Amino acid sequence: MALGTATDAYELRFDAGRICLDLLATTHPVERLGSVAVLRAWIAGSGLVPAGTELAHADTSWLAGFRELRSRIGQLVPGGLAPEGRPYDLALAHVNEIARAAPPAPRAVPGADGTLVRQLDGPPACTALLGAVARDVVELLTDPLARAGLRQCEGDNCPIVYLDTSRGRRRRWCSSEVCGNRERVARHRRRAALTRA
C-alpha cells in the first residue's frame, strides 16, 4: 500500500517489499511513528493483523517497543550484507530474542457475505506483533535470494532500503511515484536548462 490511502494523514508507506523494511522506512524523511494512533495505523496498514482488528489496547509501551525494534533493524539492514562488529551482534541477538514470541495466529471465519475472512482469536499482544516483524527480519537476513535483492534508494538523500523483486533486478528507487518522479523532474529541468543555455 502506498500513499493515497486512509493512512495519508500519517504519510505511511508500505512499498519496501517486506514488513521489516516498511517499519524501517518510518524514519524518513522525518519520524513517522510519533503517536500510538499512527502506530495503530501502521500495524493495520502493514498487514500484521487482519482488517478491522481492534487495537485500542495499544499504548505508549507498544510505541517504544516498535521504535526499539526499528532501531535494531537499522543496525542490521543493509548491514546484513556485510555483518561485522559488536553493534551488529547485539542487534542480531535482540532481534533473535524478540522473534521467539509467537505471532498472532489468524483463523478463517465466514464474513458478512459468507466468504472466508481472516480474524484473530483475540486482541493481538505487542510481543506477538513485534515477534512477527522480528521473524521477518530473520527470514530476510537468512535468505540469500532476498538478501541479494536488498537495495538502497538512489534518490537524493533517501536512505530507504527496499527489496528489489523487479524483472531483471533493475529497480532504482524505493518508489517510482516518490523518488523516481523527483529524479525524472530533476532530469527534465537539467535538459531544459541546457537547451536554454
Structure characteristics:
single chain; 197 residues; mainly alpha; Jann2411-like fold; two-stranded antiparallel sheet; 7 helices; 46% helix; 8% strand; disordered N terminus
Question: How far apart, in Å, are the first and last alpha carbons?
Answer: 42 Å
* CATH arch. level architecture: Orthogonal Bundle
Rg on CA atoms, Å: 19 Å
Low-confidence stretches: 1-9
Total separate domains:
1
Shape: globular
Helix content: 40-55%
| Quaternary structure state of the chains depicted | single chain
Q: How many H/I helices?
A: 7
Biggest β-sheet description: 2 strands, antiparallel
| Beta-strand proportion | 5-15%
For this structure, what is the CATH homologous superfamily?
Jann2411-like domain
Arrangement of strands in the largest sheet = 1-2
What are the secondary-structure elements, in order, as H or E? HHHHEEHHEEH
Describe the structure.
The chain has 197 residues and is mainly alpha-helical. The protein has a single domain, classed as Jann2411-like domain (Jann2411-like fold), CATH 1.10.3300. Helix content is 46%, strand content 8%. The chain has seven helices and four strands, in the order H-H-H-H-E-E-H-H-E-E-H. Strand 3 (150-152) and strand 4 form a beta hairpin. Helix 3 (60-76) crosses helix 4, helix 3 packs parallel to helix 5 and helix 4 crosses helix 5. The termini are far apart.
